[in-house]
Structures are given as C-alpha cells and as structure tokens.
Amino acid sequence: MPQADIGLIGLAVMGENLVLNMANHGHTVAVFNRTVSKVDDFLAGRAKGKSIIGKHSLQEMVASLKKPRRILMMVKAGPAVDDLIGQMIPLLETGDMLIDGGNSYFPDTERRMKEVEAKGLLYIGTGVSGGEEGALKGPSIMPGGSPAAWPHVKPIFQDISAKIDGVPCCDWVGPRGAGHFVKMVHNGIEYGDMQLIGEAYALLKNALSLQPPELADVFSKWNATELDSYLIEITSKIFTTKDPQTGNYLVDMILDAAGQKGTGKWTSQVALDLGVPLTLITEAVFARSMSAMKDQRVAASQALKGPRAKFNGDREKFTEDIRQALYASKICSYAQGFAMMQAADAEYQWNLKPGNIALLWRGGCIIRAQFLNRIQEAYNRKPALANLLLDPYFKKAVSKAQSSWRRVLRAAVKLGIPAPTFGAALAYYDSYRCAQLPANLLQAQRDFFGAHTFERTDRPRGQFVHVEWR
User: Fold this and answer.
1) How many CB atoms lie within 10 A of CB 377?
2) Crossing angle of helices 79-88/106-117, nearest 10°?
C-alpha cells in the first residue's frame, strides 16, 4: 500500500536535510539515491526511527507514493536533471508532479516544464536557499512552474520553510521558470552583499589596521543597525574563530581566491540580455574572477606600484563612514536586482510580485535581513515602483549616507585599496539621477561610422534620423 506523502531523489547533504525537515514536520518521505548504499546508511543513521522509507529503485519509490505523486529531485543542475526526468516519465501517471529543487538555469526549467506537461504530468522548479542548515531547520523556498501543482505541494513546502512572525518564507512565485529565476537573482544579490562586506573589511583592515577581535566588534555593532543581517552576523563570528592547529585567527589563514558555482554569472548574463544595468552584481562576479588570479596578483604586486599614503583622519568617524557607504551600496544592489526582476517579468509575463519576493527572503536564506521588510513596505506603498531608489525611505537613507559614501571612495582611491562594488554602486546612483548622460556623443559616433541613426532632442521620442557627417 502507498504510504509516503512525497518522494525525494538525491541524498547529498541538502537532500538528507530536507528529508529530515519534512519528517520532523509529520510528513512521511520515501527516499532513493543512485548509490543505493547511501539509502541504507541514511536509514541506519540520521533517519533512524523517523517517518522515512528507503527504496532501492525508482520503481519501488514511485509505487510507495500517495497519488497524485510528488517527487522532489535534488540532483546536480544540468544534464543529470534531464536524465532523471527521462527515467521518471515512464513510471508516472497523469497529474503526478516532478519537482526540481536544485539551482537549475531558468530557461532549462521553462523547457522542462513544457516537456513534462506534454506527457500529462506537472512540473515545479523551485529555488531553495539557506544552505545545509536552512534545509534542515527552515529554508527560503521559491517555487514556480505548473500552477496546478502548487496546491499539492504548498502544505509541505510551507511547513518546512522558515517562518518570520508566523509567515512562511515560501509562496508561489509564478509560472514556468519564475521560481528558478528569482533564486538566480537571489544568488546574484548574495554575490553583491558578500563582496560589499569584503570591501568594507578590506578598508577597515588596510586603512585602519584593525585586527580580527576589533573587526568582530565592529561587525557585531553594525548588526544592531540597519545592516542587521545573517551575513553581517556570521562575519562577526568569523573574526572570532581561531585555527586549532596554529592558534592564529582562521580568517588570516584562508587563501584569498574565491570560488563560484555559476548563478552569479547567470544573473549578469541575463541582465545583459534584458538590457538592465546590473553593474554592482557584475562587479562582484568579476571580483571573484580577479581573486582567482592569485599567482598573477602576487607577481604583479612586486612589479606594479601604487600610492604609499596612510590614513591619518578620525578613525571612529571613518568606521562610521564605511558603515554608511556599505548600507547605501547595499540599497543600490537591491535596487538593481529588483529592477532586473521587473524587466524579466515584462519579458516573460510571470506576474512577479516584488514585495512578496522580499518577504520570501526575510528568513531561511543567505541574504535574510531586516532590510527586506523595508523593501516589502516600499512595494506596498507603490506596487509599480520603478526603482527602489525612488521610494521615500530609500531616498532618504541614501541621501543621509551620500557624504560618507563619497569620502570612503576618495579614501580608497587615495590609499590604493580596491573597492569595485562600492564604486559601481555610487556610479549607478550618479548615473540614475543624471538627466543628461554623454550617450548623445556615443550616438553621434555610431551614426558617423555605421549610420545607426539617432533621436533628436527637438523631436518626439521614437523618430530616428541619420545625417551625412562627412
């Protein structure tokens, strides 16, 4: 007799933790893994005594599920997902649901949904954020795909998600690839947040010579301000951790070469396709690429010289300036990310709700922060808000921080400390508030060498002309 509420395929740590989370909330889960011994090990270990059923084949797992069947695939994004879908389709019946919980590229989800629905099945592509801890204790979940599938998975997904003030950090995002698109943007914003924090750290360390205990204190205090967030909180904790082997602070023992899995790069690539200036997040992606050039940078540090100036101002005031610059830059990062979602919504007709998306990110996920409440409030005030910078709260916050922001960048340039995302944020702000950009000259150049035409200031928009410059 069928006895499981949902099936899960893929028992890596994220998969295991989601299964345990579901079981802890009263759901019976059937599990399968390609390496069958992993199923047995899981049942004998972490899953022992819980409402978790191990299966040694896909056929057995499918047979154990209540109808309509719900099957969550937690396998590596890419061809592995297509391969698994191909194996599952012949085993399922009309109305059964396949759910991709990995970091799939949203165009792949759009394609897969069409293919699966053509077989009479339903498909969900859902972003799951929060890492291993979030998967176990409550992640942020961003589902999209076949709308008819949502009522069937909603109780389970909302049970296991993080809760803020009793509200689940999980709700329907939109059709087709909307869920995975929103997760991709989340990860891009995460890239921006992490790089901004890294640049603040570099300024505090290199300009003010702060040591890890002092840095921990600064970030702990910052976490009690508008910057209150998971990333600021863990940054403070990182600075207090010592290497058990050497007794040195661990952060100083870590090689400065950052890794990346591709979602940040996808965010920048899609922004280019949509024509959205996602400058800060793109700089954050490039900053990781620059960090990976460790050997070249070490060699260049011996050959290329910069300024030898030292900071000689008010240290406490400069620390506050950095905090203000960090907050203003963060606002610009989110303004870019939400503008990108609005552009994608116009392109793909997903009917995204920016304010609701901000609520999904308040808990469970990596970018969770009190700041997201302000974003939700902004879109409640004006659902068609063109840009977060135009909201009264954010307009006032950036205005308050602007002098500090500019002082920090002046100091960074003077001291030769790279701050690419701080700079990109300010350039975005200055460009967005600028009624006249030098693109008129650019258009003249394009028309000069390629007859690409241009619009005139003395004629209505949409009328293009060409002149013979020679």
Assistant:
1) 13
2) 10
Query: Per the omega criterion (within 30 degrees of 0), is the bond before 68 cis?
Result: yes
> Which tens digits make up the pLDDT trace of 95-143?
999 999 999 999 999 999 999 999 999 999 999 999 899 999 999 999 9
Confidence at residue 51, expressed as pLDDT on a 0 to 100 scale: 95
Give the model's pLDDT for residue 261.
72
Measured in degrees and rounded to the nearest 5, phi and psi for residue 56 equal: -100, 5
- Residues labelled catalytic: 183, 190
- pLDDT given for residue 470 in this prediction: 82
Give CA separation, 299 vs 57, 292, 293, 309, in Å.
54, 14, 10, 22
> Is 333:281 a contact under the CB 8 Å cutoff?
yes
DSSP-assigned beta bridge partners for residue 126: 143
Residue type, 315: R
CB 323 within 8 A of CB 393: no
Strands 122-129 and 140-145: antiparallel
**pLDDT tens per residue, range 434-450:** 999 999 999 999 999 99
- Which amino acid is residue 312, in one-letter code? N
Instruction: Please state, rounded to an integer, the average pLDDT across all residues of the chain.
Output: 96
| 424: number of Cβ within 10 Å | 27
Across the range 315-334, mean pLDDT stands at 98
